[in-house]
């Protein structure tokens, strides 16, 4: 079996399991909002490192109109990915819609499964996000992910999914 593991130059050895994520990823995806209405979006994600024992992450999404052009910012999140020696991982995110989330999970070579451990919402949060689960994976050189979300109004269900290319 050939496993495609990348170790970027200067990457802290404790981050080797996440080396394949490092870089900029772009593409389009689909989603359903908290009312169940479908939409398409453009996304840019960047994973980077600075020598510390974490990756830092930023994701921006923009809604797409019927013509495929960006119409407005949809959301942004930023955070830190902390892998552990036992292949577990902790991910701390802050979302532009008014919440922070701690996710925990497992790294399985080029697949990462995450689930919410805790959510803190600001009083003015746009959505009553309460829990989530995420799956990230490298498939044929692309970054694919699926994000399920629960809110105060509904149980866990698909929210965002995309296939992004390395930019």
Q: Layout of helices and strands, plus pairs?
A:
Elements: E1 23-32, E2 38-48, E3 55-64, E4 70-83, E5 88-95, E6 99-107, E7 111-121, E8 129-139, E9 142-151, E10 157-166
Antiparallel strand pairs: 1-2, 1-10, 2-3, 3-4, 4-5, 5-6, 6-7, 7-8, 8-9, 9-10
Largest sheet: 10 strands, antiparallel, barrel
CATH topology category name: Lipocalin
Beta strands, count = 10
Number of domains: 1
Query: Which residues form runs of ≥5 with pLDDT under 50?
Result: none
Give me the number of helical elements.
0
EC number: 5.99.-.-
InterPro entries: Calycin, Nb(III)_bact/plant, Nitrobindin, THAP4-like_heme-bd
Family: Belongs to the nitrobindin family.
Binding site for heme b: 159
Model description:
- Its EC number is 5.99.-.-.
- This is Peroxynitrite isomerase.
- Residues 15-166 form the THAP4-like heme-binding domain.
- It catalyses: peroxynitrite = nitrate.
- This protein is an all-beta fold and 167 residues long.
- The protein has one domain: Lipocalin (Beta Barrel), CATH 2.40.128.
- Helix content is 0%, strand content 62%.
- The chain is built from no helices and ten strands.
- The protein has strands spanning 23-32, 38-48, 55-64, 70-83, 88-95, 99-107, 111-121, 129-139, 142-151, 157-166.
- The model has no long low-confidence stretch (mean pLDDT 93).
């Amino acid at each position: 079996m050939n496993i495609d593991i990348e170790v970027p130059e200067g990457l802290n050895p404790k981050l080797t399991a996440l080396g394949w994520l490092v870089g900029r990823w772009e593409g389009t995806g689909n989603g359903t909002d908290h009312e169940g209405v479908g939409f398409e979006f453009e996304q840019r994600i960047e994973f980077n490192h600075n020598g510390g024992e974490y990756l830092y992450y930023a994701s921006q999404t923009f809604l797409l109109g019927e013509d495929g052009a960006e119409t407005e910012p949809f959301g942004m999140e930023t955070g830190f990915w902390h892998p552990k020696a036992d292949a577990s991982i902790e991910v701390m995110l802050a979302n532009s819609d008014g919440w922070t989330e701690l996710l925990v999970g497992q790294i399985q070579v080029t697949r990462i499964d995450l689930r919410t451990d805790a959510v803190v919402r600001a009083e003015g949060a746009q959505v009553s996000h309460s829990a989530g689960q995420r799956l990230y994976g490298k498939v044929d050189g692309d970054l694919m992910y699926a994000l399920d979300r629960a809110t105060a109004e509904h149980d866990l269900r698909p929210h965002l999914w995309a296939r992004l290319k390395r930019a």
